[in-house]
Specification:
653 residues; alpha+beta; eight-stranded mixed β-sheet; five-stranded antiparallel β-sheet
């Protein structure tokens, strides 16, 4: 029998997964009231810049909303499938049609809808998952990514059931380009039937596509780390390899003249829109050796699009976001800078057809999400659904030096500080390590709860993070748990010089790689009086064989597997140092996590129990690498605060 099935049966019989009642009780004890925040997802600006479409918060579930870009007034709302999750609104080149997709998780069917004015048309039901609709340059053909009978949802952080049975006999997941001509009723599959396509875009002449893909597999997320850049012919479906770079690749776009392909490549840890980061690379469309054209750029590119005969890119630069246009010589010119966090559908911003207007969803530590629209030098909000929501923190960007590097981080202070008093400090370690912790509005998570209880929060974008170029990221290669931990500890020293925090009341918490860093920090330092780890990695050697995306590790170990050199993985395995741990640790994880299986959190929990360190473990049923149930998120917040309060004490002293 599958060992993970046995493990889950054990969990249920032991009562570890029955958390719903406890969640409600813990949340009531903290008085963490759910806050209704209106959200805007997958934003798309119409070609003429006059309307915006997005998936927005609805009365029962998210719906597709079209607004005037002038004043934010709603002009249309679409909800054709009451049980569907909608995604990816995309305008036709003439702006007369809006396409979007919907997924019904119960029937496991999808639809692609096309709205013309208030009239909605749909394809027939597709037995599988549709994503990323995109019109051909002439507007006559709509392409989508199609996965027939998917075993996975396409999101590596979602809760996924285990593969059971004879694994070698299971049908691999493949994702193909499907096209829907205006006169056709059903989508036609175009690309090869044995490949899984991760990203794609039309060529400027509409005669084919550029894609990133890999062989289909039952572990579709793992193969992304070695995906190739390929061209697919629209008429024949034939594919040819353009390049097979050794780095992770995203967002391929053919140059306006059709002669080259530009893409984002670098050191990335997860396949997901929030995980894109790297330099801009180019390669001849005919094939050849890729070239990094922004190798000296001190920032991290995270989206790329072709508009009005030009290529536009966004990047995080130290602590803010910039919009760039790419010149013919490969250099980039900044058009707009925003100190807040920005998101749109097919990138961080959505541009009008002439490239003169932009739209994006904007938020920060100080204000909740809102849609902003305008010319790059005159962007203004057009939605006000969240204007009444108040932040419970005063936040600022800080920087400090460590070992010749400048480290950026965020310092979040609770409101209503009392003069002459000191406060506890909670250090949040982001995942990745290839990630950038953005300035986001917190409303019902553990950060919000800690601030409400009088904690300062420090969030370092330690070495290995996005924001300072690929060289800054690569400083962690063969040094995970080394320089990054030193950056975190040096950051605490820097915070103590500028904020009224108490060295004797330090806590640390984090998720994913951040969960590992919480473990690792408590084996290497006794500064922390409490810890909370979301997913753990106690043994790097066994983790490589247990999780479904082990290839993420290889770039950090110069391509060396633990079967080649177990010693270099073992030297940063926290369980080898568990007897050095003194810090009481709260652990939580999702039952169906495929990136850091729940059994690993149980392993660390058992190790801490064995050496007499106070610990607690909660495994949330049906959840993956990230929680999707708001009640569980509130429960995490309540438990984290209660744990820190117990060992540090809340508020001023």
């Amino acid at each position: 029998m599958n060992p993970m099935v046995v493990w889950r049966a054990h969990c249920r019989s032991a009562g570890l997964l029955v958390v719903a009642v406890a969640a409600a009780a813990a949340t009531r004890a903290l008085a963490l009231t759910p806050v209704d925040v209106h959200e805007y997802v997958d934003l798309a600006l119409a070609p003429d810049g006059g309307r915006v479409a997005a998936v927005e918060t609805g009365p029962q579930h998210p719906v597709v909303v079209v607004r005037s870009a002038a004043d934010g007034k709603i002009t249309a709302t679409f909800d054709p499938c009451g049980g569907c999750a909608y995604a990816d609104p995309a305008w036709s080149p003439d702006g007369k049609a809006l396409a979007f997709v919907g997924w019904d998780s119960k029937s496991r069917n999808s639809w692609a809808w096309v709205a013309r004015g208030q009239t909605l048309h749909s394809t027939t039901s597709f037995d599988g998952l549709l994503a990323k609709p995109r019109y051909s340059p002439d507007g006559k053909t709509l392409a989508v990514l199609a996965t027939e009978h998917p075993s996975k949802t396409g999101d590596s952080t979602a809760g996924e059931t285990s593969n059971v049975g004879d694994l070698d006999a299971l049908t691999p997941d493949v994702r193909r380009i499907a096209v829907l001509e205006v006169s056709a009723a059903k989508p036609r599959l175009v690309s090869p039937g044995d490949r899984y396509i991760y990203d794609y875009d039309w060529t400027p002449d509409g005669r084919g596509f550029v894609v990133t893909d890999a062989a289909g597999d039952i572990y579709i997320y793992n193969n992304w780390y070695t995906a190739k850049l390929e061209a697919v012919d629209f008429a024949t479906g034939a594919a040819r390899t353009i390049a097979a770079p050794s780095v992770q690749i995203r967002s391929p776009r053919v140059s306006p003249d059709g002669k080259s392909v530009v893409f984002i490549a670098g050191l990335m840890d997860d396949y997901g829109e929030m995980s894109i980061g790297g330099d801009l690379w180019t390669v001849p469309f005919a094939g050849g050796e890729p070239r990094d054209v922004t190798a000296d750029f001190k920032g991290t590119f995270n989206s790329l699009q072709r508009v009005a005969g030009k290529l536009y890119a966004t990047a995080v630069v130290f602590d803010h976001f910039d919009l760039f246009v790419m010149e013919k010589d490969g250099s980039v010119k900044s058009l707009w800078s925003d100190p807040n966090t920005i998101h749109a559908g097919d990138g961080r911003v959505s541009l009008s057809a002439d490239g003169t207007r932009l739209a994006t969803t904007e938020q920060s530590f100080a204000f909740a999400p809102r849609i902003v629209v305008g010319r790059p030098k005159d962007v203004h909000p057009i939605t006000h659904d969240n204007d009444s929501l108040m932040a419970n923190t005063d936040a600022r960007s800080i920087h400090y030096s460590n070992q010749g590097l400048t480290i950026q981080g965020w310092l979040l202070a609770p409101r209503n500080l009392q003069a002459g008093k000191t406060y506890p400090l909670a250090v949040y370690v982001h995942g990745g390590p290839a990630h950038f912790q953005e300035a986001r509005f917190h409303w019902d998570d553990d950060n919000y709860a800690l601030l409400d209880r009088g904690y300062f929060i420090f969030v370092p974008n330690y070495r290995g993070s996005y924001g300072q170029g690929l060289g800054y990221q690569r400083t962690t290669v063969m040094d995970l748990g080394g320089g990054d931990l030193r950056d975190i500890l040096a950051g605490i020293d820097a915070v103590e010089k500028i904020a009224p925090v108490d060295e004797k009341r330090l806590a640390i918490y984090g998720h994913s790689y951040g969960g590992f860093m919480v473990q690792w920090a408590t084996t290497q330092s006794d500064r922390f009086k409490a810890a909370a780890a979301s997913t753990t990695l106690p043994n790097w050697v066994s983790d490589y064989g247990m999780e479904q995306i082990p290839k993420w590790m290889l770039p950090y170990f110069n391509g060396i597997t633990p079967y080649d050199r177990p010693d270099i993985y073992d030297r940063i395995s926290p369980e080898r140092f568990v007897k050095q741990v003194k810090t009481p640790t709260f652990i939580y994880t999702g039952e169906l996590d495929v990136e850091a299986p729940a059994i690993e959190s149980f392993e660390w929990y058992s190790a801490l129990k064995a050496v007499g360190v106070p610990t607690s473990l909660v495994i949330y049923p049906g959840e993956g690498h990230r929680m999707s149930n708001p009640a569980y998120n509130r429960d995490v917040a309540a438990r984290t605060v209660a744990w820190f309060d117990k060992y540090l004490g809340a508020g001023p002293r």
